[in-house]
Amino acid sequence: MGTDQALQPAIRVQGIEKSFKDLHVLRGVDFDVRPGSIFALLGSNGAGKTTLIKILSTLLKPYSGRASVNGFDVVTRAGDVRAAISLTGQFTAVDDVLTGRENLVLVARLRHLPNPAEVAGSLLARFGLAEAANRRAATYSGGMRRRLDIAMSLAGDPPVVFLDEPTTGLDPQGRLEVWRTIRQLAGQGTTVLLTTQYLDEAEQLADRIAILHRGTIIQNGTLAELKRLLPAATVEYVEKQPSLEDVFLALVGDPPGDRQDQPTADSAPGKDH
Ligand SMILES: Nc1ncnc2c1ncn2[C@@H]1O[C@H](COP(=O)(O)OP(=O)(O)O)[C@@H](O)[C@H]1O
Ligand SMILES: [Mg+2]
């Protein structure tokens, strides 16, 4: 099979810097994202993940450096970039009073897609929301809402999708549902750039993981490559491979961002039903 070695990256970030007054948040960020892959930008709370996503989605201008998405410069070709992307943030765009189907029809209309009802129907099916389609979104679980939110951002099938902390605040079941959705997206050829402060999320989903720390990418590689940074510890005769968490903590030196939104344990051992 003749794979194209010169395949253009779907996202290219070169020397991006951004300050807010005296706060130099991004100090020269570089990475490429291959088309159709899942790329995780891992960093603690306040590392600058959302700032970078806002630059790549044209909502903020970098102070220096260049970035392109789908071949278009994010500053000089912002309109073309916007036409090629979707952005799902931590705060949902779902309207509670509308049903799942109505939410989807609404965004399809706003985007002037030719057949809103058909677009809504196929997204509902793709995201496992067909049965709940005619219920108000207010009745959905956290995972269903987040899936609906991602589905809404995909009306029109953008080739590049930004997911900013897609599972923050979800319970374990909801996280698994969203992970499945993200894998499915990449399986269909969509490029996914997600940010997360959860090591297991990056470990589970990403083809490549970049660690953003103190304004730069301090490591970028596959999970296997990152794990090779630390030697396997040999304990008696059992070899213990380093986890991504071991690698992250060794590189960053601090535990990842606060865990205040982690769900509390939902079952006590030995509890009767
Ligand atoms: N509009 C803004 N004005 C001033 N400071 C900001 C602004 N947006 C973000 N920051 C600061 O920049 C840093 C990075 O923020 P952010 O990109 O949201 O981090 P993350 O998404 O990794 O948690 C934080 O210290 C945050 O307080
Ligand atoms: Mg953020």
Explain this structure to me?
- With 273 residues, this protein is α/β, with parallel strands linked by helices.
- The chain has one domain: Rossmann fold (3-Layer(aba) Sandwich).
- The chain is 32% helix and 25% strand.
- It has 9 helices and 12 strands.
- A 6-stranded mixed sheet has the order 6-7-8-3-9-10, sandwiched between helices.
- A hairpin with a 2-residue loop joins strand 1 (11-20) and strand 2 (23-33).
- The longest helix is centred in the middle third of the chain and has 16 residues, at 172-187.
- The structure holds adenosine-5'-diphosphate and magnesium ion (MG).
- Adenosine-5'-diphosphate is lined by residues 20, 23, 25, 43, 45-51.
Give a short summary of the structure.
The protein is α/β, with parallel strands linked by helices and 273 residues long.
